Amino acid sequence: MNPPLVKISVVTISYNQGAFLEQAxxxxxDQDYPNLEYIVVDPGSSDGSxxxxxxxxxxxxxxxxxxxxxxxxxxxxGLAAATGDVFCYVNADDRLLPGAxxxxxxxxxxRPDADVIYGHGIIxxxxxxxxxxxxxxxxxxxxxxxxGFFVLQQASFFRTEAVRAVGGFNAANRxxxxxxxxxxxLLAGRCLRRINDYxxxxxxxxxxxxxxxxxxxxxxxxxxxxxFAKLMKRAARPNDRFGRRLAxxxxxxxxxxxxxxxxxxITNPHQTL
Length: 273
Fold this sequence. Notes:
This protein is an alpha/beta fold. It is built from ten helices and nine strands. It has helices at residues 18-29, 49-55, 71-81, 100-110, 141-145, 160-165, 177-187, 214-232, 240-253, 256-267, and strands at residues 8-13, 36-41, 62-64, 86-89, 95-96, 116-125, 131-134, 156-159, 192-204.
């Protein structure tokens, strides 16, 4: 007898991303994964997103239409409703690659010790028309604290129990709630495993957080310093710049394939797949 198929809960948080939302929904639903729970959270879009959600209502497991305190709070509401063994989230302007859920379910079955399975993906820049592959790196507490790591959120999947055990997402974090969740899981001694599969797409566009105003950049910097203190049990110091350089070097020396991908991106920034 075959083992029971892993139940996967996917949450999409949507707020005025109607131009991208249908593509995100289809990227999950068209996986045709037989044990899928799909939850959509929309705190009050006014750009036609609600009409898109309604078109897919019959294929969605749950729709949460209530005000929240920001993206991390919306994710916590989706997490509270999730009943799957595995949890992931796909932002309304991102998407999964075909076959991602089958590959992730197989990875969790092979690695019952893993609390997090993460892989690689694609960055699609709608501003320039470029699209390029990116590789997530193996990482630990020091590499994370010093910035010598990269994990594509759109290619990250979690044991639901593990996320709940660390308290879910920090709703006060408005810039890097995904990184803080990884930090909390690391500090809790949870097992994170990388697989060599391309699983998700991160879309850059004019309204992306990465193109935000200086005030948001200041908030991001403050969150990064707070995460450093959480990981290292102390505040950052001026001489930590040497640690950052070593972590950067370790990142690329430890992943030659990732270095090649990065060099190709630098030499051909307008590449398309």
